[in-house]
Amino acid sequence: MFNNLTIKTSLKDDEYNLTKNLLSYLNTDYPVQNFDFKSTIDKILKKAYQQHSLSAQEVAQNALFLIYEINLAHPLSVAAKKQYDPIILYLRQSIEHQWLNYEFRDLKEIPDLTKYDNFDDFLTSVWKKHPASHHELFDFIQNDASKEQVFMFLKSDSALNLIFFDLVAYTLIGAQPETRGTISENLWDEIGHGDNVLTHVNLYKDVLKRQNIELPDNHYIDLYSVEALSGHNAFMIGAINRCHYYKLLGVMAMTEVLDPPQYEKLVKGCKRLGLIDRDVLYYNEHITIDIKHGADWLQTVISSIVSHYPETKKEFYLGSLLRLQTAQRYYDHLLCEMKKLD
């Protein structure tokens, strides 16, 4: 969702009243009365990331999602003026700090990354060994899912797919000069080589349209659980925080290597249900093009930066893990929800 005049949420309310008050603060010029944002978010984060409350994590991740939406809001919106508001910055940075610490809590120590001369090969092995790379969700879609269940996947895939151009564009800002050509080529592919019909956004909308799936204004974020919110935020944290830029490149690299084998299974599942190649043009396009994109992110972009700045390996590694871990939890949850439709 982008260029919206107001920030919207699918989480209507929460026991802390954070969501309601945050929306009011973002969308109006009036101060929120009788609500302490700082003490409230501190309380939520304690429950979320010290007491492991999933409901509190959802409130925190949804708040972070809403704050990130400021960066894609209409430039003349009230929310756009709050981009660097002290209260918003406090909320965002507090959530990000606690979330990342929690995300990597089981990472007792970082491997000795200096010993990997071919760092792209190391990241490839991280991807291949991770459960997200061969998740049962896609075997289920290929072999067993009903049309209704596949349509749930398509809907849940919408919000992120429809801002992917913007996410790639964020990687160009301050990019190492020798990586700009590769990133720009990726961006050129996203916009269909200048053909508006073939932009990946429009190809995805076409997938939905051909199945009579109406795309709502909120791009189905009402389907977003805490797992999906975290996965979405894993991109945005690196997009708008310069200190997490290298994590974003790791997130992007893992996304491009994850997609082709999974989309192959998705397409087979769609054809099993009677869809034709024209119905899944978006996914067929990504099966082929993302193989190149994955290699480009790892072998050209990341390897080039590592050759100049070896100390960046840790950030690329953490970004890769962030994408793989959030993807695995998202797949776990989505598979569970899809099976409830059976």
User: What's the count of strands?
Assistant: 0
CA distance, first residue to last residue: 30 Å
Oligomer: single chain
User: What is the element string, with H for helices and E for strands?
Assistant: HHHHHHHHHHHHHHH
CATH architecture of the largest domain: Up-down Bundle
Give the CATH superfamily of the largest domain.
Answer: Heme oxygenase-like
Tally of DSSP helical segments: 15
Q: Which radius of gyration do the C-alpha atoms yield?
A: 20 Å
| Class of secondary structure makeup | mainly alpha
Provide the CATH top-level class of the largest domain: Mainly Alpha
Proportion of β residues? under 5%
Count of folded domains: 2
Low-confidence regions: none
Shape verdict: globular
Which fold name fills CATH's third level, the topology of the largest domain?
A: Heme Oxygenase, Chain A
Sheet with the most strands?
A: none
